[in-house]
Amino acid sequence: MDTVFYAELSWPEVEARIAAGAPVFLPLGATEQHGRHMALNVDVVLPTAIAARAAARVGGLVLPAVAYGNRSQPRTGGGPGFPGTLNLRADTFAMIVRDVICDLHRQGARRIVTLNGHYENIGPTIEGIELALDAIGRDRTADLIILRIDHWELIRPETLDRIFPEGYPGIELEHASVIETSMMMALRPDLVDLSRAAHDGPARFRPYDRYPRPCDEVPPSGVLSLTAGSTAEKGEWLLADCEAGIVQIIHREFS
Amino acid sequence: MDTVFYAELSWPEVEARIAAGAPVFLPLGATEQHGRHMALNVDVVLPTAIAARAAARVGGLVLPAVAYGNRSQPRTGGGPGFPGTLNLRADTFAMIVRDVICDLHRQGARRIVTLNGHYENIGPTIEGIELALDAIGRDRTADLIILRIDHWELIRPETLDRIFPEGYPGIELEHASVIETSMMMALRPDLVDLSRAAHDGPARFRPYDRYPRPCDEVPPSGVLSLTAGSTAEKGEWLLADCEAGIVQIIHREFS
Amino acid sequence: MDTVFYAELSWPEVEARIAAGAPVFLPLGATEQHGRHMALNVDVVLPTAIAARAAARVGGLVLPAVAYGNRSQPRTGGGPGFPGTLNLRADTFAMIVRDVICDLHRQGARRIVTLNGHYENIGPTIEGIELALDAIGRDRTADLIILRIDHWELIRPETLDRIFPEGYPGIELEHASVIETSMMMALRPDLVDLSRAAHDGPARFRPYDRYPRPCDEVPPSGVLSLTAGSTAEKGEWLLADCEAGIVQIIHREFS
Amino acid sequence: MDTVFYAELSWPEVEARIAAGAPVFLPLGATEQHGRHMALNVDVVLPTAIAARAAARVGGLVLPAVAYGNRSQPRTGGGPGFPGTLNLRADTFAMIVRDVICDLHRQGARRIVTLNGHYENIGPTIEGIELALDAIGRDRTADLIILRIDHWELIRPETLDRIFPEGYPGIELEHASVIETSMMMALRPDLVDLSRAAHDGPARFRPYDRYPRPCDEVPPSGVLSLTAGSTAEKGEWLLADCEAGIVQIIHREFS
Amino acid sequence: MDTVFYAELSWPEVEARIAAGAPVFLPLGATEQHGRHMALNVDVVLPTAIAARAAARVGGLVLPAVAYGNRSQPRTGGGPGFPGTLNLRADTFAMIVRDVICDLHRQGARRIVTLNGHYENIGPTIEGIELALDAIGRDRTADLIILRIDHWELIRPETLDRIFPEGYPGIELEHASVIETSMMMALRPDLVDLSRAAHDGPARFRPYDRYPRPCDEVPPSGVLSLTAGSTAEKGEWLLADCEAGIVQIIHREFS
Amino acid sequence: MDTVFYAELSWPEVEARIAAGAPVFLPLGATEQHGRHMALNVDVVLPTAIAARAAARVGGLVLPAVAYGNRSQPRTGGGPGFPGTLNLRADTFAMIVRDVICDLHRQGARRIVTLNGHYENIGPTIEGIELALDAIGRDRTADLIILRIDHWELIRPETLDRIFPEGYPGIELEHASVIETSMMMALRPDLVDLSRAAHDGPARFRPYDRYPRPCDEVPPSGVLSLTAGSTAEKGEWLLADCEAGIVQIIHREFS
Questions:
Q1: pLDDT digits over E65-87, tens only?
Q2: To the nearest whole percent, how much of chain E has pLDDT over 70?
Q3: Contact flag C212-B133 (C-beta cutoff 8 Å)
Q4: Would C211 disulfide with which of A251, B146, B188, F177, CB 3.0-4.6 Å?
């Protein structure tokens, strides 16, 4: 079948593509508040779409996204207590990554790319990869390469300059803001309604965290920075950067 | 937004619907071989679609499916070593269920339905629910109801008689066979290609399991019974049973 | 010493028998309600006795039974909240199985049979076996065979026909019913008192589970089907089937 | 039924006895080498028999023994690599204790006694008890008393003087030696064959442990001290001490 | 005794100070390579010293540092495979944090500050805090405040401008570089030998991670940026910022 | 640098010493009440100092001490509920030991000594070592030796006779008593104030444990035996024994 989506293929098709060396992408997402103007699935939609575009270019396969992410934090995603957000413990998330990688390895996959869309997943993804390597056996991994990519790291400085002519506020405030909103407008305009954006940011965070009751610095909307200026066109610029960046990485690492 | 899918809503919409008592469905699936003629996502597509139909009827919400299932077994799914299949450990699966239920409870959801499409998920789903109840605190659950449904349990005997006039081979052999194939033909005909069905079944299993090398009784295609006679029309009969069954259960339990 | 029971031997005797290739049986049981008319140890007595009979035929050894089982469920055993029942978490049970198998392997045992008497143990037994294989190292298991047997699977259709001339109600309703009662009457008549049987069944279960308060369909006695007609003679028929079935399996797999 | 054994009762009988305040004994044992002259089940037989004698005196119940113990150590039991010995990880053992105590508490049992026969179980028993108290909730334990007894601690100095007129070598060398052998001769003479005792002790241990290859100070027989002089009569003296000690403790703590 | 160090006090002194509301600081460090010119204990020395200075100002107590940190990563610390570095799994680190916080809470401590010196500890510290809150019980934490501070977040922009007149390279490259080196020169000049600094940086990292063999972009010395220009005087500026920042936070949050 | 402390060295220095075969000492301590007259860090100070003295003699390295110990017990340390004491779960402690040993092994260390100062650490240290051996792979440990030493085991009988001319009360009552007090007076006289000793011992323990409220036999001061007669001179005798004992062991095992 003509698809990049692993789970839409039958097993003989998957077997053949992996035997042929197809890179396998694992999108890592979250179900997390993204402001009043966007759906909860932003962190699933973006890495899945980016992975699909890149996979189409490099003959890769895209696994079902992990749709639940590690505990959202106030300074990067609104926090674990925000309505709508569903949080996994770090250990749970790491074990999903471990199990999926181990089973991909069992099948012969040796080129694996985790593509992450949720900041708080970074740590438990690393943990899951390391646990998988322990489980596989470090001395059996000579031909295995696992890449861990956060899609926002692939945006070129030139693109940020175009989008933020008055200066980039920094990725840590970009939750549900111009970058994510623009990319969603390009990919799933039906899931964005800019008219509901609240413009109650940007957040000014204190340089520490407080538990169990976080500091009240998250704007009520959940948008950490600004949404004004988001457009589908900018979204396409960003997606193009991500796609090109991954293609380049794949060529460098898997050739 | 006019959707039953939880993750397509913004957080204020989810908050409002849960506050209004919307039942929340958690589809539990797998990425598992389903014969040469079907995609690997059958166990995700079926419970998601059934949940969506039922949710539309009862004002419910459908969460993102858990797309990776507990270890496939030879006698029910071909086995954990089949190409294409990606297996989670029981503990990993149970922890996903635990974390999602705990966080739904934190948000105020009190009517939760796990809808399962993969036989091997039954045990760790029960475990995950019990662990969630422990974590929430048994004395804080007076108003909480969690239902655990396997969709195939909702098929009426009359429907089985219509589909299998010469006798129903039993659900345990139905993996990738007429029931699942028919429902997929109704829902995602693009993911079924009956011309590739191998007709190498039905499996005749010995009454025990062998490890680490399972007995070689799984038909090479991975289809445990037969695919012949699968039609989209039969699929609709089956989906109608499941939908009606859930609506009836919801009314009984949540009124 | 002339016994099949592993723990009644001294270590040099065990060492010699394992070196000689003796199959090692691990009975997996539970401490679980079995109606008003039977003791809580049915799921321990049955697999231990069956294993002992089979071991005597094939030169095997029988380990101490795991006397505590995984969480009893309403539809198969009355449920985890029944008085008398003592439930282990799935993870605890799996770890026992893992540890015992790993240590048998360390001693040189390569022919291991888990013989199960409690339905809810199936999943965590599989998990424990798989975890043991991971711990041993998959590439060190070329000469290892582990069989997983549920004793009720070995009953021949002919025997069921003799015992249930009006039709077999199905194994899932057999908890504490004619099959288990008859076998207990054959093995431990002192632990059965048919005069206390309540005849409040059979259960008619809804096709789903409810938590934390299960549906009230378990008959108050805890007997899911019927006890009437149980006899020690029928018990001997059943035990003979189980014994013969295991002997046959052992010959097929371990020769 | 007229028995102290919990698992030989039906659920209504257990329910009634626990409601009446019966102390519940959990024997904690091991399957561990005990020299060439004794069976592997010494650590199960002793605490089970002692618990049964004490329970008969105080109206108590005796649970099925945990028949697998925490990792045997060279200086106290020969070590985890001895043939015949089957070792559980500390975590596995602690979780069994936790789960059983939690479920006893759920049933209303408030007087629980763990009676231990295997030195290496001490630590994970404490851990299991503490984990159970965490799981139950520390603020729900006002009426709960759990006693943790090692049976050898109940032997009176006078008895040791009678048995060892030339001086007691210390409990840490008593593994498979006069104390355990004598008690086994009193309880299960069929499982003792003094003619096979090797007299290759006593062990002289260095004051440290070595891993992964322990120091070679364990006598080849596995007997750490001496067996000469063991008699059933001495065994009865010892058992009487243990029984009386427990009865006294029960009266002090549970009245 | 006149000390801020918790473990140098006797228990009655600790009891009295906690009863009086003393904030308790938990320094979180690592044993990790910090270039050829510095000791492995930088991440322990810095948060311990900063905590001690702040505690002296606010009547606080400083716990023993957690001296082993979560897995070092190439882009922030050289990576888990660097000689000298000792890495804990994320789960291990989180459980230490959980256990210490739970036991501080048991003693009555309600003002807890984790002060972190190792970037990779951030995630598992958050996890440990959340697990502690679960274990304590969320409904028992009304009077509990836990602050999580990374000391480098407290450096004022003015100070960075003074130290880096040509522009701050960013905290992520500061591993073993001017900031850490200067603070160590102020605190423990005996553990710094600038003459051994290698000047093989700064690192230019690719925007992704590779496993199991990381990209070879870490400078051979392990210093990610530059050490030139490090002085004890600058170290004092930085320490003064950290101290003042914490004092200010303590006054804001604990008054 | 001229130090035995691992963490005070730079990574090239550690690398060189380990390559040269330096034994690596891991001090295992606790933060635990030690009476009204001593600081909480006794179990850290003693093994660290003893390890440092021994390391200086044998060219060894001393790692940062694990400053938090496994749950203090009433009969050996006052108990987990004593003010000041901070308790780790057994599992947490074992995982620290496992992770540190695994990472030492990765670096090439093959001569590892855990030196313990806290009785309750014994069990989880053994567990941690065994788990490390599992993780490393039992078949990769041919050249690895791990020694597990409790420092009090190295005190010679002659020294005990000199210190306790009227008879040694036994190590189990020595918590915070003459032995520990004397060694602290020799090492850290600033952390001992004999004038605050309470003389409310010795404890007379019942031969069992009670949970969740321990028997009230711990003297209010937390000192299990006596402090009278403690002197720095006696402390030096004891330290000399420990140092000499370790040097002797190192020569026997690592030559």
A1: 999 999 999 999 899 999 999 99
A2: 99
A3: yes
A4: B146
What's the average model confidence in pLDDT over B149-153?
A: 97
Helix (H) or strand (E) holding F210: strand F209-211
Residue C208 has pLDDT above 80, yes or no: yes
Residue ranges in chain F whose pLDDT is less than 70: 172
Whether F124 contacts F130, CB under 8 Å: no
- Say how far apart CA C38 and CA C26 lie, in whole Å: 23
d(CA C16, CA A125): 48
- Per domain, the residue ranges of chain A are 6-254
* Angstrom distances, CA of residue E57 to CA of E3, E15, E241, F67: 12, 20, 14, 25
Which of F47, F42, F77 shows the shortest CA–CA distance to F64?
A: F47
Average pLDDT value for residue range D73-86 = 94
What is the ipTM metric for this complex?
Answer: 0.97
D10 part of contact set with chain C, CB < 8 Å: yes
The answer to whether D206 faces chain F, any CB pair under 8 Å, is: yes
Residues of A with Cβ-Cβ distance to B97 under 8 angstroms:
none
Residue pair B110/B132 in contact (Cβ under 8 Å)? The answer is no
Q: What is the DSSP string of C81-99?
A: TSTT-BEE-HHHHHHHHHH
How far B6 CA lies from chain A's nearest CA (Å)? 8
Q: Find out whether C172 and C75 touch, Cβ atoms under 8 Å.
A: yes
D172 is catalytic: no
Please tell me what DSSP assigns to residue D209: E
Q: For residue range D148-189, list pLDDT tens digits in order.
A: 999 999 999 999 999 999 888 777 677 889 999 999 999 999
Note the pLDDT tens digit of each residue in D89-146.
999 999 999 999 999 999 999 999 999 999 999 999 999 999 999 999 999 999 999 9
Put simply, whether F114 touches E (Cβ < 8 Å) is no
Distances from the Cα of B190 to the Cα of A3, B36, B232, D225, angstroms: 11, 14, 12, 75
- pLDDT tens digits, D45-67: 999 999 999 999 999 999 999 99
CATH of domain D6-254: 3.40.50.10310
Chain C residues near residue B122 by CB distance under 8 angstroms? 123
Output the pLDDT for position E87.
Answer: 98
C-alpha F203/C-alpha F207 separation (Å) is 12
Q: With contacts defined as CB-CB under 8 Å, which chain C residues touch D96?
A: 68, 88, 92, 96
Stated pTM of the model: 0.98
Q: E231 φ, ψ to 5°?
A: -145, 155
Q: What is the pLDDT of residue F169?
A: 77
Q: Which residues contact C228 (CB under 8 A, 6 or more apart)?
A: C178, C197, C199
* Stretch E94-122: mean pLDDT: 98
Side-chain half-sphere CA neighbours of D187 within 13 A: 26
DSSP string, B70-86: E---HHHHS-TTSTT-B
In the numeric block, the tokens 């396409």 are attached to A236
Residues 6+ apart with CB under 8 A from D39: C1, C7, C8, C9, C10, D45, D184, D188, D191, D192
Q: Answer whether residue E170 shows pLDDT above 80.
A: no
Let me know: does A241 contact A154? Beta carbons within 8 Å. Answer: yes
- Provide the pLDDT confidence category of residue B168 given band limits of 50, 70 and 90: confident
Residue tagged active-site, from A150, A180, A241, A243: A180
Rounded distance, CA C43 to CA C34, Å?
A: 9
What span, in angstroms and rounded, lies between the C-alpha atoms of A4 and A22?
10
| Residue-level pLDDT at E234 | 98
Whether E83 and F12 lie within 8 Å, measured CB to CB: yes
Catalytic annotation present for A180: yes
Give the pairing type, strands C24-28 and B87-88: unpaired
Tell me the C-alpha to C-alpha distance, in Å, between residue F74 and each of A100, D114, D248, F218.
45, 17, 21, 6
Q: How crowded is residue B93: how many other Cβ atoms within 10 Å of its Cβ?
A: 30
